[in-house]
Every structure is written in C-alpha cells, then in structure tokens.
Design a protein that fits this description.
760 residues; mainly alpha; two-stranded antiparallel ribbon; 1% strand
C-alpha cells in the first residue's frame, strides 16, 4: 500500500470511529450516508419489545466497511476549480497538510444514477419517500445534484425498469415478481435495484398483514408485523392500528396499549392522533384509556387536541360503567353526559345515565333518567330499565303496566315483565288489581309456565279466602316445577284448610325428608291450625301452564249520586269479636317506655297484654315480637296471637294476618282471628269505596260466623252504593226489624237515592 493510500486509510478509520459514535444523535448524517433505521428516517415500533421512541431507538447495525468506502470515495473527489486554477492542480482533502509534487489524483468514474424511483415517488405525490430517496442517492453519489422537477426526468433510460416501478405503484406485485424473473432469465447480468426489491418485500408483507387483519387472523397479523418491522412506523399508521387491534383481540391489552402509546409519543398528524384515541377507546379498558389521554397535547388554541371527541368518550366511558358496576367513572364524564341529555335531547344519553345509576342501586336517579328517556322515545330498552327501577323501588304494579307493551321484545324484556308480575302478586297488602290486569298476568304466566308468579297467585287467592283457586294455582306450579317447595307447602296448608287429609298426607309422602315444615304440618292437624304464610313484600320472583281458575280482583263500581253512607256509628273495635283468653298479667310498670327487645320473652309477653289493656297496640305489637323469641311453644303461640290482636286494634288487618302465621294457633283462636280480620278488611274496603270487595269479605266472614247487625247494615250500604237497590232494601228491612236505628237510617238513604223528589 502506498503512503498516500495509508494516509487515506488512517483518515477513513478515524472518521468511521467518530461517525459510529455520532450516528445515534445525527439523523442528518445518517441520511447523507444512506443509513436508515427503516426505509424512511422515522423510528419504528418494535413488536417483540417495548414501545420505542426517538430517545430510546433500537441500535442499528453499522456496516463499517461500507461507510469507510464511501468516506474514502468522498475524500478522493477533487474540489471544483477556483480563481482560474485547473482542477488537476488541486489536492485532495487527505493531502491538504502534506503536498507531494508530481502526484496526480485519479478521478474516479461516476456510475450512472438510477433516478427512476425519484420519478415514481414524485408521480405518486409521496413527498416523504421522495426525500428519503434523494438522501440515499446523495449518500451514494456525493456530487449528484437532484433534479428540480423529478417528473421531468426522461423515461427513456430503462423502459423495462420503469414498467416495473409502474407495476409496483399499481400494487400488481405478482406481475412485478414475474417481470423481474423474466428479465433475469433473459439478461443474466441484470440485477433489479435493491431498493425495488426491498420495497416489494415490504409491500407484499403489508398486503398479507391487511388481509389477515380483515379476516380476523390476529396471530398472523402480529407475526407479519414482527417479521417486517419497517412497516411499523408513523408513515403507515393503518398498520400500527391493525397490530394494536390484534394485540387487544388476543388478550394482550398491555401490548396494544404500547402500540397506541408509541403513536401518541412519536406521530404528529392531528387527524391520525385523534383517530388513534377513537380506535383505542373501542378496545381498551376505562383505566387504560385514562393513561392514553394523559398523552394529550395542547391544540394551540387554548384547548386540548381531543376536545372534539370528548363527548363521545364520555358516553363510551359511562357505557363501560353500565357493564361493570364496580367501575367508578369520573364525575367529569358523568356531568358531560348529563349535560348532553339535558341539552341535546337524545334518549340514548338518558338511557346511559339510567343504566349507570341502576347498576349502582341508585333507584330514584335511575327511575328519573329512564322516565326522561321514555318521554323522548318509548322503546323496549327504556321501558325495561324503568320497570326494573320500579320493581326495586317497590312499585311492581306500575312496572307491570310499563313493560307489558314490550314484554315480547326480547328475552330480557320478557324476564323483566315476569319479574314484575311475581312481585306484583306478592305485594303486602295485596294490590287492588282490575280484571284486565289479572287476566293478562295470568295469560302470560300460562304461556311462559312461570312458576314464581303461579305460586304467588296461590298466595294471592288465599288472601281472598279462595282456597279452591289457590290449590289449583299451587298444583299448576308443581306440575311445571315438581321440586318447588314453597308451592308444595302452599298446597299442603290449603288442602288442610279444605280438610283434605288424604291430599295433605300425599304431599307429606312426596316431600318426606325434603321439607321439615311440610312434615310437621300433620302433627298439629288434630289440635291446631296453621295460618297460611304470606310471601315477603318486594320479593323478586321468576315463570310457567295456567290453572283452570283465575283469581279475579273486584273492580270499583261508579260512585252513586246519593249522599255517602254513614257508617262511622257502625265502627266498633274488631277486637270485640275476639274471645281473649290469657293468664294473669302485670298492669304495673307498662305506662313507662321500655325497649321490649331488652326484656326476656315471658316479661315481654306480660308487658304486651298490659299495653293492650291501656290501648297502646303498636307498643304491644313490639313487645309481642320480643316474646316470639321464647323457647317455650306456648309462649310463642300467645305472642303471635297477641300481636295479631294488637295489629287488628290498630286497623292493620294484613299485618295481623302475617302475625298469626308466626306460630301455630288452636282452631278456636284461628277462627276468631279469621273472623276479626275479615271484618276489618270489609270495613277498610268500604272506606276505600271498593264496595264489591267489601261484600266478598263479608260473605267470607258469614261462612265462619253469623253476621251481626252492624255488619249487616254495612252490607246494605255496600249494595246501595253499587245501585243494587233491591238487595239494599232487603238487607235494611231485615236489620230494621231488629230495632236497629242504623238500618232505619239506611232505608231513608235508600229512599233518597231512588225517589229524591219525595224526600222532605
């Protein structure tokens, strides 16, 4: 090697060493040397590791020899002539410090520059890749000057190559592969430009990735992306989106988040950044989205770059809260959706808020928003939500009415309607249902074979003292679901009430070892009667063919024009119809207020009777409740009996019926309570102007005990208000024959109603 060559080599080696150190922070230098991270000067997203950015880009592979060759070629290029000097008299950069006379540098031959790619990128309007190609050619050919107008580059150089670029630009990759192979076969020395081959490989990989993404072959998408990292740059944002989606769809949310973070940290196109957040919000969790939104930038106008989609994001986040009741959505987003619901008037916004509040058991707020949604647009979803809120709020009657129209819209709507019917029939006190409502509820129960409502129909019939109807409902529920123990128990006590001993024995045989209360029922039949238990109010129940008899609730007749009946004088405490037998009780000490729960059962029982004697029934009821905890069976029986009497005196007949079920009662006590409860219910129905219902209670009572004159007069007034004047006259006349002043007053009211002109 000559001294000159050795000097050049030393200079080149030093330059290379410095260059390798500077490459990381000198993108312009990389471009000049034709060294690129990928096919364009932008950082790339690494699939196999964490997200990379400008500050932590992957280390490149440095071809030192190639760089040395380029530097050496650059040092041997003679500078342009200056001040009339001849070019051949100039020395090279390497010889500037030590000139050697009579040594002339050899002028290296410049290869012909292939500018076909420049023309191609210019014709496509791909400015980024055009500039990358110019930088590459400058690094290869330092003296090359790019054309001012790449489109003006003549096409006469290599027609076949230009056709190949054309095939590439049109995406006809298979034809391009064939054209390359054909030319290599015909021209053994011809080699396609490496840039064309690289770009073709990448383009084919991209096409495969997009196809796999469209076919939801997400594992293939990830594999292609890993094998072709040059695709994963900001210049092809769609590929990054597809890779992120593939990660999310394969349960690798953290890697999907990495991809979106890479975009938001490195890519600057505003529209693409906005679309990135939109796509991410459809795939990632609420918490992850808050991290991504932390990378939001100012828009330069005093706002934030994602303000235009803030409303939609808030809606999406509230919807996520609907799916997960444990997710606490930020109040800011709830406020946005609430403002939208109030200002834009969309039913969908009100529905979002309704479901969000319902899932968090804020039933009043949920009801408010569901009602608002139904006012804007009555849909199955809005009605279903409102019905659920009403059921939870102990309003099953309105819930049934709201959802009935949409009961067949979906499986969820049907389930909601049936739940409403079960809770409606389980109300305590029983709801006053019209014939229409009872009929349609029964029809749906039959069609759906819904056991819970069928069972509740049985209990409902028992409250109306219709044991035959109740038995049929319980039997029907058991046909649909033979292992429904509550229906079996209801049927057993109903058959016991009907004195069907064989029927009770059969149920006990079928349920032997499965129900203790059914087994114990027979033990008390000879000396006690167990009052039917009533289902808890507000109980949510579930459906199934219908019994031959449907319970019908009495409908309210039109009000009569005659003066209202005066029945206040008839009101005597129903307690007077009950024979009370109890032991000695302590009268002293019950005038002061005492927490009955702190007393022992026997003391609480005595205090209860004492409070009854001084007419403080509600306090007595609490004392009897405490006495029900006694281990002694007799004490429990007396406590249940006393609590029933207390509630009757307070006018709470339904509570009295429930209290009577808390312990078995003797037949005499059970009959006394039944008579008193029916009388009280008749008076309550009359006061509520449900005259037909009052007559039903009176008829039921009359089957147990002869009707006293005061209730006979009440019956006459019920007939009078229903304009059944013949029956009213018959009843009043019979009662007046006993000397009843109230009956005579009833005859006068009857005359005033039928012959108003003859009344003085």
């Amino acid at each position: 090697m000559s001294v000159r060559s050795s000097s050049v080599a030393i200079v080149v080696a030093v330059a290379v060493a410095g260059l390798v150190t500077a490459l990381k922070d000198r993108p312009a230098l990389r471009d000049m040397l034709g060294f690129h991270w990928v096919s364009e000067p932008a950082p790339q997203f690494m699939l196999m590791g964490r997200v990379t950015g400008p500050e932590d880009s992957p280390k490149p592979h440095v071809d030192v020899q190639a760089i040395a060759d380029r530097l050496q070629a650059a040092t041997l290029v003679a500078p342009l002539p200056q001040d009339g000097e001849e070019a051949e008299n100039q020395v090279t950069v390497a010889q500037a410090g030590q000139q050697q006379p009579n040594v002339q540098p050899a002028s290296p031959a410049q290869p012909k520059v292939d500018e076909s790619a420049l023309r191609y990128f210019a014709s496509r309007g791909d400015t980024a890749r055009l500039q990358a190609e110019i930088a590459r050619l400058r690094a290869l050919y330092p003296n090359w000057v790019p054309p001012a107008d790449p489109l003006a580059i003549p096409q006469g150089g290599d027609k076949q190559l230009e056709q190949m670029w054309q095939l590439y630009s049109e995406g006809r990759y298979a034809e391009l592969r064939k054209a390359i192979a054909d030319r290599q076969a015909s021209e053994a020395q011809w080699q396609p430009p490496p840039d064309l081959l690289d770009r073709l490989d990448v383009a084919e990989a991209r096409a495969r990735l997009v196809n796999a993404s469209d076919l939801k072959q997400y594992a293939t998408v990830i594999q292609i992306g890993a094998n072709t990292p040059s695709l994963l740059t900001c210049s092809d944002i769609d590929v990054l989106w597809r890779v992120a989606e593939a990660f999310a769809k394969t349960d690798r949310a953290p890697r999907a988040q990495d991809a979106y973070v890479y975009i938001l940290k490195n890519c600057t196109n505003p529209q693409e950044r906005l679309a990135t957040i939109q796509k991410a919000s459809a795939l990632l969790s609420y918490a992850t989205m808050q991290d991504l939104l932390g990378l939001e930038r100012a828009d330069g106008n005093g706002g934030r770059e994602f303000d235009s989609i803030r409303n939609d994001l808030a809606r999406r986040f509230v919807a996520a809260g609907n799916d997960d009741p444990n997710l606490a959505v930020a109040p800011t987003y709830l406020s946005i959706v609430q403002r939208l619901a109030e200002t834009e008037g969309l039913a969908s916004d009100s529905l979002l808020l309704g479901w969000y509040q319902l899932r968090r058991e804020n039933y009043a707020d949920a009801e408010k928003w569901f009602r608002a949604a139904r006012e804007k647009e009555d849909t199955a979803l809005a009605s279903q939500g409102l019905a659920l809120a009403l059921i939870a709020g102990k309003k099953p009657q309105e819930a049934e009415d709201v959802i009935y129209k949409w009961r067949g819209a979906s499986k969820d709507a049907t389930a909601t309607y049936l739940a409403a019917t079960a809770n409606l029939m389980a109300l305590q006190p029983p709801a006053n249902l019209s014939e229409e409502v009872l009929s349609r509820v029964a029809t749906e129960v039959i069609a759906r074979k819904y056991v819970p409502t069928a069972q509740q129909f049985g209990w409902f019939a028992r409250t109306l003292n219709q044991p035959q109807t109740a038995a049929r409902w319980f039997e029907t529920a058991l046909r649909w679901k033979p292992d429904d123990e509550p229906s079996a128990y209801g049927l057993a006590i109903t058959r016991q009430q009907l004195r069907d001993r064989a029927g009770v024995a059969e149920i006990q045989r079928l349920w032997a070892g499965r129900s203790e209360r059914i087994a114990q029922l027979g033990e008390t039949t000879s000396r006690t009667t167990t009052m039917p238990p009533l289902p808890a109010a507000g109980q949510t129940l579930a459906p199934e063919a219908a019994p031959p008899t449907v319970v019908r609730a009495p409908t309210e007749p039109p009000e009569r024009e005659s003066p209202p009946a005066r029945v206040e004088a008839l009101r005597q405490p129903v307690m007077q119809t009950v024979t009370v037998r109890r032991g000695a009780r302590q009268l002293r000490g019950c005038t002061t207020t005492v927490n009955a729960e702190l007393l022992d059962p026997e003391t609480a029982l005595s205090r209860g009777w004492c409070l009854m004697d001084i007419n403080r029934p509600m306090e007595a009821a609490k004392a009897f409740e405490a006495a029900l905890a006694a281990p002694n069976r007799k004490t429990r029986e007396d406590a249940a009996y006393g609590q029933s009497l207390a509630y009757l005196r307070a006018g709470l007949s339904n509570n009295a019926a429930v209290a009577a079920t808390k312990a078995p009662q003797t037949q005499q006590r059970a009959a006394e309570l039944q008579v008193a409860i029916l009388a009280d219910r008749a008076l309550a129905a009359f006061d509520a102007k449900r005259y037909r219902e009052a007559l039903i209670y009176l008829d039921q009572r009359a089957q147990l005990r002869q009707e006293p004159i005061d209730l006979l007069v009440l019956r006459g007034y019920a007939y009078l208000n229903m304009k059944m004047y013949g029956d009213a006259e018959r009843i009043f006349t019979a009662a007046a024959a006993t000397g009843s002043k109230d009956a005579n007053r009833g005859l006068a009211d009857l005359k005033a109603s039928t012959h108003p002109d003859t009344v003085d």
